[in-house]
């Protein structure tokens, strides 16, 4: 490269001027490579920070919001089948409190579009709780109008609140996945600029050797060593960081997305079960929806569906165990729900209600509680893995920014010191 420059400017440029041009070129390339590294590290750190402080936590909050709303709907519906117990009342109120807290937290972390959606959701949640309280008031005095208000509240939940929460969750998961995908890219700019600068340094050393008959220029040799250290460190650290993010995406986010869908299907199925019984023979639509959801959860034969997908994605024994527990409890709950339907269809509504609501190892409510607990446990493992891998990705970049500044400054200084004696020869 530099020989071509020499030939082009032969007769028009002195050797000192040529040396000065080489120094300027090497300085620009060295600074460019260093700046490219700093920009890459800063960008990667910003994405990791977003995963740990914004998109990751927002995804978890959105999961909790959907779960709280679904569970509140199922609990409120179940309370109408028998006299509402203190435990059911506390669970419903806790769900509403968690949902309101999740809305508050999510609003602080969400963008403008999501913030508007969350304000609408909060307003609808107020309407929903009002409908539930009206339904309870009528139910306490024995008026059937309470069931109508409950169905209206449940319809609002399914057509307004849950879709809004689902959109928020999908947006948060999409943002997290997109950030993870971007953070796993190879630092091509750093590698290419580093390689170009290395070639320039080697060419400069060849030129100096031909002009001065000195085999090694200490300054250029030192600059080359510093550049190699800088490039290797940058590529290795950014590569290690990308690897940790990829593990979090593959073993955490992908699994969490499937488990979230599984828990959503389970919770909505539970509400369908209660609403079918409340309808007293008029709940065919709820029962059809429940069957569709359960088929999606476990497959018609109990071996497929979302839980089978979650088992395939489970990266560790603890995850596989939690998913296996969920599948077992889902199968058991489906069997017990069959007994609920048999009794209801046979005219024994009281027994059907008892099987669906009374806490007992042989009743549906206990089986569903274990299913929900297993899914929650599996989801927490997946969410924790995302955060843990993001933390490790951040640690992989520790000290790199300062190192790049010092190595780049040292490289430029070494180039200047390397040519200084050669320039003095022409004074």
The amount of helix comes to over 70%
Number of DSSP strand runs: 0
Low-confidence stretches: none
Structural class: mainly alpha
| Global morphology | elongated
Order of helices and strands: HHHHHHHHHHHHH
Oligomer: single chain
Computed Rg: 32 Å
* First-last Cα distance: 27 Å
Strand content: under 5%
Summed up, the helix count is 13
Average pLDDT works out at 86
Instruction: Tell me the major beta sheet.
Output: none
Topology:
Blueprint: H1 2-9, H2 15-79, H3 86-109, H4 112-140, H5 145-183, H6 188-212, H7 218-278, H8 284-298, H9 305-313, H10 317-345, H11 349-357, H12 364-396, H13 400-424
Helix pairs in contact: 2-3, 2-5, 2-6, 2-7, 2-12, 2-13, 3-4, 4-5, 5-7, 6-7, 7-8, 7-9, 7-12, 7-13, 8-9, 9-10, 10-11, 10-12
Description:
This protein has 427 residues and is mainly α. The protein has a domain at 2-54 and 181-424. The protein is 87% helix and 0% strand. The protein has 13 helices and no strands. The protein starts with a helix and ends with a helix.
